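Aim 2 progress. For Metallophosphoesterase, the working sequence is reproduced below.
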Amino acid sequence: MPKALVVADEADERLWTPAVRSLRVDLVAAAGDLPFAYLEYLAGLLDVPCVFVPGNHDPDLSGYTRYGGLSMKDGFPAEWPGPAGGINADGRIVDVAGLRIAGLGGSIRYRDGPNQWTQRQQARRARRLERRFRWRKWRDGNGIDILLTHSPPRRLGDREDPPHQGFTCLHRTIETLRPQWLLHGHIHPHGEPVPDRAAGRTRIRNVVGYQVMEFPR
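Predicted structure tokens for this construct:
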């Protein structure tokens, strides 16, 4: 039963200490808007992989490819601006620590800046992710354990103010991928309880801050 430290949006000073080793997890999963140095610290101290999607306050990571230890952009060597050793799952499906994770980062576009998308743009990105899922499912028959997003689906844990509205396309993506969990950030609870939500068989959880979660296979 893989166990993950799931983080988003708010760096917790209690995790900036060697005591974090006591969590004994198999993976760090990050849903965006955290300092990359924080993710590097967690993954390094825990000695586990880190899978993440970018949030709207993160730098632009598009166009980078990595082969071995070499980072490339537009065919030329370039310094990777993301967390050292981190696996960017945005628009991808990755297999890590016994889990299959699909990722879709970013927020609704509300100003200029990276990792922000209109509803139509995110819908196109979601369709590409769904095509990748169908191919992977056809190839090996395995489903998705976690859909890792920065923003929630529209009207399933989002807000009505323009910067915090969720993506409508995620309803279709959930129906297609049928993940066990959708884990998202972006919506700060400010101390209020945030119950899990459901869409079909998928449970939706706001993971702003940090949580330790187990994922039965």
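The two ends are 7 Å apart (CA to CA). This observation will guide construct design in the next reporting period.
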